[in-house]
Amino acid sequence: MENFLSWISKPLNDDDVEIWFNVNNMTIEKRQLYADFCISLVDLIQTTYLGNSEDEKKETDINLSNDDKMNHFSWCWEKTIENFAKENIKFKINGKHKEYFQEFFGDVYYDQKEKKIKNNLYNFFESLFDENKYFTQSDLDMIKEIYKLMEKNKVLH
Known about the structure:
Strand content: under 5%
Helix content: 55-70%
Order of helices and strands: HHHHHHHH
Shape: globular
Structural class: mainly alpha
Low-confidence stretches: none
Mean pLDDT: 89
Largest sheet: none
Distance between the termini: 46 Å
Number of domains: 1
């Protein structure tokens, strides 16, 4: 338990973090790019989802099936990839990266009962990739997972 708490909460030394990024060939420019991708995806999901919110009922709220939720995610995913392609930053539509984010958003957004968690996703990704904060090992592991998935699914020119 102590190791887990350390992994999730103990801030790492800035020099160790920089060495860790360098050893894993993770440039700051690409980290920022993948942060922008995550934040763009969150924004699109949150601004276009018409699903039922548990706490606040809106006139536009509807009950959606799991298929509807996954179709909404797929539309947002493809739209985000399309938007990046307009800037000549191209990713494959399907792959492990999509599966990762689909599972993530399924758990923490579409199937999430707590509004506070759903509404905090933008801040979560912004904080995760924030270069001016102290990183924990769990932050670095998640950044590495996202970074490597996105790298493997770039469309090379």
